[in-house]
Design brief:
10 strands, 40% strand, globular, 4-stranded antiparallel sheet, mainly beta, 131 residues
């Protein structure tokens, strides 16, 4: 696999890799809460593509500009200034108004109505931040 890497972010036992072309890959031995962003619950020890979908039709893929890992979750910002989160949600750190873990990236669309333009995202151990 030949990938030009833009950035890497590490959580507890997992890694998210963002390519220059806007695609996200994950790997690691910790996937208890879905932090790898994959449809299955097993661990992967090689880079695996994480799919971001723009809408329910699953026809267009979203390109990502920034990723940040918390301890067991990830937040991502798309080229269209959309926010996606996945992984552990025990403390509501995914910003989805529930406490359910998410195995796949989920768009946090209610934020889009509250903020004029999202320019950056960040994550801490058990929280996520949007600027």
């Amino acid at each position: 696999m030949d990938i030009s890497i833009k950035m890497i972010s590490c959580g507890k036992g997992f890694v998210m890799v963002l390519s220059e072309s806007g695609f996200v890959y994950s790997y690691g031995n910790n996937n208890d809460y879905g932090q790898l962003g994959l449809k299955h619950d097993y661990k992967v020890m090689e880079l695996t593509y994480v799919e971001f979908l723009k809408d329910e039709s699953h026809k267009e893929k979203e390109l990502i500009t920034h990723i940040e890992c918390g301890e067991n979750h990830t937040i991502a910002l798309s080229i269209k200034h959309k926010v996606y989160t996945w992984g552990n949600n025990h403390f509501g750190q995914l910003g989805l108004n529930d406490y359910k873990h998410k195995w796949l990236p989920v768009r946090v669309d209610y934020i889009e109505n509250q903020l004029k333009r999202i320019v950056n995202v960040s994550a801490s151990i058990r929280s996520s931040y949007i600027m």
